[in-house]
Amino acid sequence: MRISYIDGLRGVAILLVVGFHAYSRWPSLLPYGNTYEMFPLFHLGWLGVQLFFIISGFVIFMTLDKTASFNQFMYKRWMRLFPAMLLGTILIFSTSSFFHERPAGSPEILSILPGITFIEPSWWYLVFGLDIKPLEGAFWSLYVEFKFYVIAGCIYFFMGRNRLIPILLGLYLLYQLAAYLSVTTDVYVFDVLLRLGHELSLEHFGWFTSGALFYLYHENKRERFFIGALLCSVFSASFLKYIDVIVAAVMISVFFAASLRFSVLQKALQRRFILFFGFISYPLYLIHENIMISMIIKFDEYALWGNAFFYPIISLVALSIVSFLIAKKGEPLLVAYIKKHLTDK
Fold it and tell me: φ and ψ at 178, to 5 degrees?
């Protein structure tokens, strides 16, 4: 059963990320420069990804509880991610020559591989020696998510449900310990552990663990899980740079926590506007950054509107329509095709 206000949280997360990319990420490329760069909601909007990670920890634990086997779980996750990724990849690649102002530059044919396989470019280089320029920088979090799915699925189905959170937390703490000892000692093994942990994206597992603890609280309302989730989030935030970033990350965690406890906030998160962006959050996340920046530059070149502040909003409207079509029409059609022709499911 879907939890509507969790979809609303996705809507908040994607709006934060889009705001960051539109007004703060690329000041040297945009007509308004750094005018809005330091506005808190824009400057710190990249923390919407951390909100996505907390949501993912919550939802993945819920999904694991409703799945019979590791293979079935990975199949569900692949079917959730791949159709939109394929459609988004086709759209991005096929329009890249028109949106030639892309910050990421013109993609090559190999650029499609990391996205559609959910294997990050560094692994392609490590295993095959292929130096691949990614299609979209924003895909980085999808590589992190996919590693989390594999690791969480293995723990849950091969080690047991009760070991999921302790092991996830242990992996995160092990990474942080290795990071500290690799700097403070000359012991080579800690450098190896740090490199391995980084390749597995363990530095982000504190957020996933927090979300999983919030799920346990949602299930049985035991305060120790709620407090543990908050402490895990605060601990994870403490490793971010700069005090304003740490405070903002803690506020995002508290915001998620509050959504579990206060019906007023739950109702606010279930407003149509927020739920709409929650519904399209995944395809919009995939396609928005480079196309949006290119559109803003084009708008300024032709001076179609007076105030450049509104260029990202106009771009967002257009990309939201495309994302809605992907989520509402494209994904279901592709899922149906895959189930009918490519799997036995």
Answer: -65, -40
